[in-house]
Design brief:
Helix content is 28%, strand content 31%. It is built from nine helices and 21 strands. The chain has a 17-stranded antiparallel sheet that branches. It starts with 13 loop residues before the first strand and ends with a helix. The relative contact order is 0.16.
Length: 400
């Protein structure tokens, strides 16, 4: 099946329409479920059992690939909306720098430049190729093959998940629960305010694997770009005994004020297993290739076992054998469960009002939540100080 997701239909699994009648400055976002695979479990298992490397050998990239590398962003209405808040954001960045606070993750973005989706939901999107590749990994006892499949399931998401669309920042204690059609259960929770840390946890059907880790970011700004470094880590553990820990490369968002808008994954990503296998992928350094190309190796100690090559906008190969091709593999839908806990993201006032395009009310609700978080943070700091003094007083009393 040809699963190329064009920039006209899909960006980060969300289609966007300008809504001039009800909110002139807003954009409406809704899930394009028809572009995702929702095969039932038995069909998925058939695909897993019959999985074969792809025979294509051409150097292919999807339509959203930028000429120089990365994923381009071309919709003029969307760009206008994103850049309409550019001056405001630059002013906030300037204030942060002048105050000596270089943590740009604390900057508050106007809600009209955001989407009605929590960053916790976005985090769960990292599993959209798990039903094929991770279930395949579950069925093999070859540790290197498992590693290849985990790398593939990770890289294949980039051309979909890379996006300028900013989700809502989770508040402390916020939760999300979802699932995949193969029976995988997914959970996410915001466990820290500053730094903002999102924890996630996934369980394969019949506990066949466990997937967990965290996301937390450091951001820096240039004259016409933003660099986002994810300092978190991910881990997947298979019942066969192999554990794979891996980190993130960084993302460069360029054209934020002028010129062409695009986003790139750059830097180095490493995979470490408890079986002695390691993999290193270097993004944006392949000679005479756009920056979305990468290369790397799988090693056992100093011994090179396999070469890795590809582009996250098109395909990935191990020793010339193609495991993923954007034209042949379709992502699977992550279904977010209806809210059940009072902490579930979908119950947030800014979320619900943004989804219904009441931008003014959504902005008010967003500011209310941010003020509440600041107030709670002050109370926690005050309590910690109170407890510290109490413990010091007790120690002094015991000493006397």
């Amino acid at each position: 099946m040809n699963s190329t997701l064009s920039s006209e239909d899909l960006d980060n699994d969300i289609r966007i329409q300008q809504v001039q009648q009800t909110a002139p400055d807003a954009v409406q976002f809704y899930i394009r479920e028809d572009l995702f695979n929702n095969d039932p479990y038995d069909i998925i298992q058939q695909k897993v059992a019959t999985f074969q490397p792809i025979q294509s050998k051409d150097d292919t990239r999807c339509d959203q690939a930028s000429k120089d590398g990365g994923k381009k962003f071309e919709d003029k209405k969307q760009i206008k909306c994103m850049r309409s808040v550019g001056t405001y954001v630059i002013q906030q960045i300037g204030r942060k720098i002048l105050s000596g606070d270089m943590n740009l993750t604390k900057i508050s973005f106007p809600i009209k430049a955001m989407i009605a989706k929590s960053a916790l939901e976005k985090n769960l999107q990292s599993t959209i190729f798990f039903p094929l590749y991770i279930n395949r990994a579950v069925q093999t006892v070859d540790f290197m093959e498992q590693l290849k499949l985990v790398i593939t399931a990770t890289i294949a998401t980039f051309h979909i998940n890379l996006s300028f669309h900013k989700p809502l920042n989770p508040i402390l204690g916020e939760t999300v629960e979802g699932f995949l059609s193969d029976g995988t259960k997914l959970f996410a929770e915001q466990i820290s305010h500053h730094p903002p840390v999102s924890q996630f946890y996934g369980i394969g059907r019949d506990n066949s694997y466990k997937y967990f880790g965290n996301y937390w970011y450091e951001a820096s700004a240039g004259l016409n770009s933003i660099t986002l470094k994810n300092k978190g880590k991910r881990t997947i553990v298979f019942n066969g005994g192999q554990r794979i820990d891996y980190n993130f490369a960084y993302e460069l968002y360029s054209g934020t004020i002028m010129g062409s808008m695009k986003v790139e994954t750059l830097g180095v990503s490493t995979y470490q297993t408890n079986k002695g296998l390691t993999a290193t992928l270097k993004f944006g350094k392949v000679k005479r290739k756009p920056t979305d190309y990468f290369e790397g190796t799988i090693n056992m100690g100093q011994q090179e076992l396999c070469k890795i090559f590809g582009t996250y906008m098109g395909y990935i190969e191990f020793d010339g054998v193609r495991y993923w091709d954007h034209r042949h593999m379709q992502p699977y839908q992550v279904t977010i469960k209806p809210p059940f806990l009072p902490s579930d993201a979908q119950l947030r006032g800014d979320y619900t009002n943004l989804a219904s395009l009441d931008i003014d009310k959504a902005q008010i609700e967003k500011e209310n939540l941010e003020n509440l978080q600041r107030h709670d943070a002050k109370l926690r700091t005050k309590f910690k100080e109170f407890r510290r003094k109490k413990e010091e007083k007790k120690k002094q009393h015991d000493h006397d």
